[in-house]
Amino acid sequence: MSNTIPLSFLDLAPVPEGKTIAEGIAQTVETAQQAEKFGLNRFWMAEHHNMPGIASAATSVLLSHIGSQTKRIRIGAGGVMLPNHAPLVIAEQFGTLQALYGDRIDLGLGRAPGTDGATFQALRRQMKDAERFPQDVQELMYFLGNDTEDSPVQAFPGANSNIPIWILGSSLFGATLAAHFGLPYVFASHFAPQMLAQAISTYREQFKPSAYLDKPYVMLAANLLLADDDATAHYHFTSAQQSFVRLRRGERGQMPKPTHDMDSIWSSAEKMMVDNALSVSFIGSVQTVKPKLEAFIATHQPDELIVTANVYDQAARLRSLELTSQLKLFTLQS
Q1: CB burial class (10 A; 0-12, 13-18, 19+) of residue 58?
Q2: How does 73-99 read in b/e, with b if 16+ C-beta sit within 10 Å?
């Protein structure tokens, strides 16, 4: 393939079994530094609450730490779950990040609460808050824009920053909204791939050029775990598979250790569910993964790919990042 696209990394700050949150965060910093070293475009973190295996709940705080430990790579939210927050507060947080780290900041927004009902209540939010998502996005764009000078409420920091906003989604709702606002769109194909083709088609067909973007820009998410051989990659990926089973069972816990025997852990129905949810996964050696990834990119024509490797073993994550350059599919920065 002659045309390459940028590659980015999505991280949940996993906390492996037997490790502390501080150790999990230290590994995330190391991952961000390696992503920068190997030429990736962005390092994004996702907001999740009430999950002992994920340390990225205070997303903007952790992004600030990542920013201080890196130099070039763009950092951002993939995403902030906007129904959990007042738009003004997010404008101030990300305006502060831009004041600290310059034009390296991205702000991806999701409509889902990213948590359970009880936690939503603990956040002092209500499920109906998600219904205000389009209005909240507009309000946030306003606070980050150039037209608040005469407003009785302004974001300090935040005003005039024009931080790039992305809409995240796994359905037609987000695709339609991103198209309507003329914003870039990220599809969560790494765990909810069912409407992938339909959503990006809808986004591209309905896109309206805006002050932010003159043509559609699609970033697709995928699970990518490269190793020196297929067996090693599949072994380490069992951590992600186990996490998904636990999530569906409502079980809490840190990032599980990999296993050689998934069949003793999941039922056939659970295996089918996980295989469907994680079907956009590229696991194996460079030689095995490259043709599959080429076919995926050729089919969906993304402008950028963002990948995640949510596994227990840190060395496996770092090795996977190291091997990405051998795929020769991505525009990596030197």
Answers
A1: middle
A2: bbbbbbbbbbbbbebbebbbbbbbbbe
φ and ψ at residue 126, rounded to 5 degrees:
-125, 150
Closest CA to 21 of 317, 254, 313, 240: 254
How many domains would you assign to the chain? 1
What is the distance of C-alpha 2 from the center of its chain? 27
Q: Which of 32, 60, 27, 35 is nearest to 46 (CA)?
A: 60
pTM for this one?
0.96
CATH number, residue 137: 3.20.20.30
pLDDT tens digits, one per residue of 191-210: 999 999 999 999 999 999 99
Range of the domain at 205: 5-233+281-331
CA distance 226 to 296: 16
Q: If you average pLDDT over every residue of the chain, what do you get?
A: 95
Residue 240 in tokens = 């992600």
Rg of the chain over Cα atoms, rounded to whole angstroms, equals 19
